[in-house]
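Sequence in, structure out. First:
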Amino acid sequence: MRKVSELLKHLDCKPYRYTKNGKVILVDTDRGSYVIKDKKKDNSQIFAYLKSRNFDYYPKVLYEEDDYQILQYIDDINSPLEQKIADMIDLVSLLHSKTTYFKEIEDADYQQIYEDISNNILYLRSYYQDLITIIETKVYMSPSHYLLARNIEVIINALDFSENELEKWYKIVGEKRKKRVVVVHNNLDLSHFIKDNNPYLISWDKARIDTPVFDLYKLYKKHAIEIDFFDILKRYEHNYPLLEEERMLFFILIALPSKIEFDDSIYNMCIKIGREIDRIYKTESLISPYYPKDTIKDD
């Protein structure tokens, strides 16, 4: 990065303190505080659209060049985890509501999603079948191998559910002529939500126009273990109800198990496997009220 002082000349201010915070630099000056970051993507069109839809809950770009941006600094107020996620989902639902429009479906739109998920299911099924075959050849299983072997049916059931629902979803969307799209932040994480007098989303580098499902999915994957997402989903849908095919896609995505790689100590692997099994059970608990009894396990 160019010298910070050179960039700040464009704001006619004198810096007196620099703080490295992850991938950005926080600068305190005689005229206030600023954030300097690498410019990974030109989001000017996204921000112009947000502004046209009266959504301005993001840090303003004060100066930018080809590679760098200077943004306004917003001081975050600490709040309990439950309150922070509730405030965040309110803002996300507002983002989706403000930027909604319907577009004609092109042949590749849903086909690509279907093929990506289908291929992922096939890969994970083969991966876990091969892994459990190797584990079962052991005379003495390690604690982590035993934990996975004890719970392999939970993982297979999750794959079965996603596979069956994917086929149903693909038939439903095949009859649609238009799909609902919004601006998705596409990088939702509690660390990317800050609030002072107003709430803000930061780190818009991955933002794009797409189905609102992907924002919910990213947030769930990040925080499924520590947050009760049932109430969060209800809160979101109170503000912005999902369409049938959107909710189906969301459930398919979150039901998919992650790939567990044995690349750590036995102790850490037990923690990793335990967290994944817990996440699958939490997902089943979230999804099950929307389906007839035993659908998730027995389809």
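Second:
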Amino acid sequence: MIGPENTPHIESIINRFDAPFFFYDLDAMERHLSSMIKDLDPSIKLWYACKANPMSAILKLMRNLGLGIDVASTGELHQVLNTGINPNEVLATGPGKSKEYLKALLKAGIKTIVLESKNQAIWLSELIAEMNVNVQTLVRVQLDWADGKSVLGGNAITPFGLDTAEWEDFNFENYTNLNIKGFHVFQWGNILDVNRLKEIWFKTVEEIQAFSKKINIECEVLDLGGGLGIPYNFEDTPLEFSSIKSLLTEIKQKFRLDQIWMELGRYTVGDHGVYLSKIVDIKTVRGKKIIVCDGGINHIARVALVNEAFPVTAFNKSSDETEEYNIHGSLCTALDYLGTFNLPSSLKIGEWLMFQQTGAYGFTESMPYFLCHMLPGEVIMYKNNLMIPRPPKPSFDWMI
């Protein structure tokens, strides 16, 4: 969570711009990441899934701490390379790899690529031969599960990878230049229960090791993706990474794995960012108290996408007396709903709400151009210095 020591800095941004913005505490993020990598088994590799937040300052922090970077688009690739990330420390994932994109990855010097289809395997093999380059690959497998949904599929059929039967039908012996190092399986997201993670990962390893023997491809690397959750409910208990370290070590020893990779997104950055939006109206509709803010799902779309709100507090205001409010943004759609929360009954128009856990899946997951509202600013605190890489922008700065 963003600590009270940042209150004066946040107030200074409010006074200066009077417009919605994201605030990231990179000092707290650095402490969190440093504790994660401390005493980590060197055969457990951590990658940062930059789709969670591709801001250059965050990418540099990840780079400086030794995390690799996972990219899943041309835009993320350029952002990562422009930030000075070594191509050897980039992992290319994602189902939408065209042959042109695969060529761009190779031209950029990317050395590790996840294969999500037979077409990707064939195209990449052709490009490796044509360009005379060396890469290593992982085969992404989509497993069957008895029940449960997830933003990454869970038991649903998704475009991520192929099932084991489809891969078994592919003649890998004809594509030896793919240099397959292992497998990638990731179908579950935002899990806060270590026992649930253990259940998922044990099943994954057991099935992948059986599949590895069946197709005669050694599993030197098993990429378990991410899935580590952060609490979007004030009552939930945060997941301690020390328990994840112990679990991964247990899995590695039990199943005699050489390397385990993890692609962590929200768990690395989510807790260290907040989004602030000003209250522009308070009213009662059919007996329900309503707050309308100057920013909503155009800046933080999560609640509309997955029906789970970011936790909200009144910025720099406390009260023993609270009441329930429905919170909405200013868009002309009922979808612009940000959740229902108990907040101080003394809230006034012109005061600000602070949405927690928005260090991940905030601005780049949003729909910022709808209704031509302000683009939110992005502000960082690092080494006790306040920096504003992008101030809030009115529509006349970007409309054509």
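Remark: Residues 271-397 form a domain with the Lyase, Ornithine Decarboxylase; Chain A, domain 1 fold (CATH 2.40.37.10).
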